[in-house]
Design a protein that fits this description.
Belongs to the SIMIBI class G3E GTPase family. ArgK/MeaB subfamily. By secondary structure, this protein is of the alpha/beta class. The chain has 14 helices and 7 strands. Strand 6, helix 10 and strand 7 form a beta-alpha-beta unit.
């Protein structure tokens, strides 16, 4: 198996370095970044939409613009935190649950309640992408017609692009941009893929699991993984004929949670029963969320969670960038196809094929050094 000439690899690395240096030199005079930053500070929805689109791009130059914009946004956020303390931080709420749990209806009514209380609400809703075409319906706004017309609310649907964590790779950046635009409450709605929805936990201050009543064996849904990550369990659709079933599910979850170690030593996961249709229990649910935030702030865990979020954010990008750099190495795509073929035909085990590809990549870098 022939290796790529070190000279070719060096030229590629040199071009990449020159491109990065050019981007860094152009940062201070980038009009797009300056315009978007001013628009965010003024709370302009159009600038927020454009900024989120910018951070979602994979174009090299636009990625550098996005990086500069996020750096400025982070600097402003740190300045506000130094001046006001934890009160300057928004409230990030992650919402997960199985399909049919009523997440969109809940967000619609919950968001309207918050805006009526003077809050500005941003909703980052992730739609599943097609495994064949890569497309998404992005129909969350159609399921939240009233909230989408509210001047104090912003809804941004994004495709999952195959991320099983229930969120996109750029969700962290979108949260930061929403906060920079003045939204004090950010709700992240995931695609509802069950126990694989752990990524959102590393992005939010409070993770809420919303479940419907009358789903058969209720405790079957009590999976240790996702329950251990939950700060709040919400039994939705507690109205009409479903009230008895909702009560039964609430009691069973309360009993079952006694056997699961709490996520925080300062907070015991409550189970709250509400109706998104009649809005019964929504004000009390918000009070419970406020109590959670106050408890976390008093214990110092609120700020610690923010630090943990940034660390997880770093590793998310590091893993993605390492894979992109690995696949983008000259000649590596052909070697990957050969390894895939050998693994599929059973010539080598997938583990050995992966080790061989990694060894080849390391050898190329050593020879190019």
């Amino acid at each position: 198996m022939a290796l790529i000439l070190p000279r070719d690899l060096c030229r590629t690395l040199l071009r990449t370095r020159n491109l990065c240096n050019a981007g860094i030199r152009g940062r201070h005079e980038d009009r797009t970044v300056h315009r978007l930053l001013q628009g965010l500070q003024a709370g302009q929805r159009a600038s927020l939409a454009e900024a989120i689109t910018l951070v979602e791009t994979s174009h090299p130059l636009k990625k550098q613009q996005a990086g500069h914009l996020l750096t400025r946004v982070l600097q402003d956020a740190n300045d506000q935190y130094s001046e006001k303390g934890p009160q300057a931080l928004s409230f990030r709420i992650g919402l997960s649950g199985p399909p049919g749990a009523g997440k969109s209806t809940y967000i619609e009514n919950f968001g309207k309640f918050l805006t009526s209380q003077g809050h500005k609400v941003a909703v980052l809703a992730v739609d599943p992408s097609s495994a064949t075409t890569g497309g998404s319906l992005l129909g969350d706004k159609t399921r939240m017609p009233e909230l989408s017309r509210d001047d104090d609310a912003y809804i941004r649907p994004s495709p999952s692009r195959g991320h099983l964590g229930g969120v996109t790779r750029s969700t962290n950046e979108a949260i930061m941009l929403c906060e920079a635009a003045g939204y004090d409450t950010v709700i992240v709605e995931t695609i509802g893929v069950g126990q694989s929805e752990f990524s959102v936990v590393d992005m939010v201050d409070m993770f809420a699991l919303i479940i419907p009543p009358g789903g058969g064996d209720e405790l079957q849904g009590l999976k240790r993984g996702i329950m251990e990550m939950s700060d709040l369990v919400v039994v939705n659709k507690s109205d009409g004929d479903l009230v008895p079933a909702a009560r039964r599910m609430q009691y069973e979850y309360i009993s079952a949670l006694k056997f699961i170690r709490p996520k925080s030593k300062h907070w015991k996961t409550p189970v709250k029963r509400i109706s998104s249709l009649t809005q019964e229990g929504i004000p009390e649910l918000w009070e419970l969320m406020q109590e959670f935030r106050h408890t976390m702030e008093e214990s110092g865990e609120f700020v610690e969670r923010r630090k943990t979020q940034r660390r997880a954010w770093l590793w998310t990008h590091l893993k993605d960038n390492l894979v992109s750099a690995f696949v983008g190495t000259p000649g590596m795509r052909e070697r990957i196809r050969e390894a895939e073929t050998r693994a599929m035909e059973g010539v080598v085990s997938p583990g050995d094929a992966a080790d061989q590809l990694l060894l080849l990549h390391i050898t190329q870098l050593q020879k190019a050094a």
